[in-house]
Amino acid sequence: MDPKLTEVSQFFERFKAAFVRQDFDTCSRLLSQLKVLLTQFRSLPPLFEGTPNAIHELSLARDIYEQAVILSVKIEDQDAFERDFFQLKPYYTDVGNVLPPSPQEYPILGLNLLRLLVQNRIAEFHTELELLSSTALENPCIKHAVELEQSFMEGAYNRVLSARQKVPHETYVYFMDLLAKTVRDEIAGCSEKAYDYLSINDARQMLLFSSDRELLEYINEDHPEWEMKNSSVFFQKAKESAPCKEIPSLQLINQTLSYARELERIV
């Protein structure tokens, strides 16, 4: 075997051993070294040169970047996830006909869709969806993300939160927890605009918590401006602290009249 290939393989085995031990600091350090070592292979993107060990090198690099994506989820680093996913993507799109299918492909593609949903990047979510094959769209990992997006857009937040109990892959839990927070923040923002106060029971049900303690923790951490008294949650302080934007009515009237005069000249 090529000495460079042997060196990368040995480093990757050390990475996997550290990952099993959940020694993520060592994993991150080894991953940085692995990425540097991979630059020695001219068979990898963007060159794709037909070297004697091209298939082995491509397969090994794909495995490394897949583990990098999973590591980024474990250490809860969304920026690293995005970087590693885009480094991995060519191995699915450009050499998919050269390498055998990876069992991690659909779980990782589904993870990326979930990340875009959590970050409210809906246009990019649909762009990525358009690039997937009909076979991929039938995969449970992809369908999970699509159904979540539909529930989110419909405002069926209870379906979004209950979906956490039936994730298709263990790595999805991190993004599902982030999505649950996004949903609750959305409900909280609407609630404080629609009501002056709610009973604790109503607030708990509306924010989809299972206990008063969870509700109290959420308020203390995310909405300290809400007041808890007389078994109710009061939103008045939040409304008072919200900035009030003035509408420049005179300026808008002048602009409208100016547009009307320009239209008369054109006609």
UniProtKB/TrEMBL annotation:
Keyword hit for Cytoplasm: no
GO cellular component: proteasome regulatory particle
Signal peptide: none
Alphabetical GO biological process terms: proteolysis
Domain of life (superkingdom): Eukaryota
UniProt xrefs under Pfam families: CSN8_PSD8_EIF3K (PF10075)
InterPro entries cross-referenced by the UniProt entry: 26S_Psome_Rpn12, CSN8_PSD8_EIF3K, PCI_dom
Domain PCI as annotated: residue spans: 79-251
Keywords, alphabetical: Proteasome
UniProt similarity note: Belongs to the proteasome subunit S14 family.
Name listed for the protein in its UniProt record: PCI domain-containing protein
The species this protein was found in: Juglans regia (English walnut)
Organism taxonomic ancestry: Eukaryota, Viridiplantae, Streptophyta, Embryophyta, Tracheophyta
